[in-house]
Design brief:
Blueprint lengths: L3 H9 L2 H31 L12 H10 L5 H14 L3 H5 L3 H8 L5 H18 L8 H4 L7 H11 L9 H9 L8 H11 L5 H14 L27 H5 L6
Helix pairs in contact: 1-2, 3-9, 6-7, 10-12
The protein binds iron/sulfur cluster.
Iron/sulfur cluster (SF4) binds next to loops.
Amino acid sequence: MASENTMNEQNASTGAGKAAAGSDRATATGEVAAAHEIFRILHQTYPDARCALTFHDPFELLVATVLSAQTTDKGVNKVTPILFDHYPDAAALGAASLPEVEQIIRPTGFFHNKATAIVGIGQALTENFHGVVPREIDQLTSLPGVGRKTAQVVRGHAFGIPGVTTDTHVLRVSKRLGFTSSTKPLTVERDVSALFDESTWTLLSDTLIFHGRARCHAKKAACGACPVAGLCPSFGIGPTDPDEAERLVRSP
Ligand code: SF4
């Protein structure tokens, strides 16, 4: 049996191979065009898509993003003014008493783990980065409780460095819309990045998050009230009846 490489080489040297390559290119071009049209429509639908966490500098956004796990941005925005009033910078947070921090952030849930992480972040920033939040992914992900997703949020919104944020909504919605066939964060990030211009990556992520919160829900997607229904390969995984779907629509 010919190896895959050998077969590819043979195809490439024949008319059939050229036609197939042309067809692949046409498919790829069509996919990119559809993806761009989907983004255009979603951006029109959610013109205010943005990071909803309140922050004044990279340090505050980093801490707020860690606190936002498994809770709402609104809930985080209620506790961060008190937190940053007590601990305005990395050195202060790194020297904080864990029980006192836990008490302040308790409403955000998982408060023991989160308090341990953000006090650890304060210490690591102070010890390793002169109290300044770094910009590089590997430096950010060296901090306690900071994964690639959090790093991309901070880079995109505090430093203006474009990036695809693979949070739960982006992973789910990207796959449903056909931007990727994977749900693995690194693969999704690579596939989605390849479809769109770098300058749009952060806005695209925010827009997909808004769409995931408002309509393309994990459990019951509001397909019948979705502005990109006509372009979505997953149309029909949720109710398609307009009235029923409309009742599922939430504020993002
Ligand atoms: S049609 Fe349904 S699955 Fe597709 S993006 Fe809209 S809500 Fe999500």
